[in-house]
Amino acid sequence: ETMKHSVLVTRQIPGESLKRLREVCEVEVWPEAIPPSREELCRLVKGRHGLLTMLSDRIDGELMDVAGEQLCVVSNYAVGFNNIDVDAAKTRGVVVGNTPDVLTDATADLAVSLLFAASRHVLPAGNQVREGEWKTWEPTGWLGVEPSDKTLGIVGMGRIGKATAKRLVGGWGMNLLYTSRSDQGDVEKELGGRRVELDTLLAESDFVSVHVALTDETRNLIDADAIGKMKSTSVLVNTARGEIVDQDALVDALNRRAIFAAGLDVTTPEPLPADHALVKSPHCVILPHIGSATHTSRNAMSEIAVDNLIAGLAGKPLRCSVT
Ligand code: 8YV
C-alpha cells in the first residue's frame, strides 16, 4: 500500500520527535496556542489514522466516529487519560496510549513546591514586595506552618504519590499516611507509611496531597464532608485533577479558615477565570497546570507519545498502552 497514514497532532509539542513522525506519515499540527474547539476538532480528525491529543481534547465515541473507521490509535500527551473514552475506543478497535513515568519526578517536585508555597504565603508575600507594599518587618507577619515531623497524607499512592512521599519523608522526616486501592508493602518498608481509610487520613494529616486518577469514583472525592474532617492548621495540595476537589467547598473552608491553605496545579475549569473566588483567596496558590512542565519531562513525553503513535499505526503494541 502506497497511501501514507495521516495523523493530527492537536498542539505544538517540544523536542525533535515530530521529525520522526513526519518520516512515516502525513502530519498536521494544530498551530495555535489555544486548543481547537470541538467543532474544529471534528473537522480536523476526519480521515485520520492516528491522533496525538491533549487533555483539552475530549476524545469520545462520537469524535472517533467522525474521524472514521480507519482511525486506529489515539496517543495522549499526558499520563492521565480522563479526556478519552477508553471503552468507546476499545469497542472501535482503537488503541490508546499515554506517557507515564517520565513526568513523575517533575510532578512530585511541583507538589512539594505547592506545599511549601501554600504553607509560607510565598505568593501573597512576594506580591506585597512587587506592589510596593513592603513597609516594615513584623514579628507577627506572614506566619506559616512547618512540615518537619508533621504528618503527610497521600491520597492515592501511585507513582507520583510515592515520589512525593519519598521527598517529604526523606527530606523533612514527615510521618506518612496513605490511601490506596492496594496495600503497598514497599511503601511501609521504605517510608514507614501506614495505609488508612480516607477519613482517618484527613483527620490526622497536617498536609494532604492528592494523587488519584480522575474516575467516577474519585470525582468530588474531596468534598465538603471530607474537607470538614481536616485540621484547621492543615494544607491541601492537588496536582492530580481539579474535578477531584469540590471547589465551592474549598472556597468556603478557606474563607472560614477551616483549613490553613491550599496549593493547586489543577482546577475546574482550566483556565480558571481570574475573578473566581479561589484565585482571589489569599490562602490559595494556583498554578496553570504545570506539573509536567520541565524540559526533561516534556521532551520525554513527546518521545513516548510519538513512539505510541508510530507503533499504533503499524499495528504493533504501544510503548505505553492503556487499552
Ligand atoms: C499534561 C498531565 O502534560 O500528564 C498528565 O496527566 O496532567 C500533564 O502532565 C498536560 O496537561 C498536557 O496534556
UniProtKB/TrEMBL annotation:
One of its GO terms (cellular component) is cytosol. One of its GO terms (molecular function) is NAD binding. Residues 113-291 form the D-isomer specific 2-hydroxyacid dehydrogenase NAD-binding domain. Its EC number is 1.1.1.79, 1.1.1.81. Keywords: Oxidoreductase. Residues 7-320 form the D-isomer specific 2-hydroxyacid dehydrogenase catalytic domain. It catalyses: (R)-glycerate + NAD(+) = 3-hydroxypyruvate + NADH + H(+); (R)-glycerate + NADP(+) = 3-hydroxypyruvate + NADPH + H(+); glycolate + NADP(+) = glyoxylate + NADPH + H(+). Belongs to the D-isomer specific 2-hydroxyacid dehydrogenase family. GhrB subfamily. This is Glyoxylate/hydroxypyruvate reductase B.
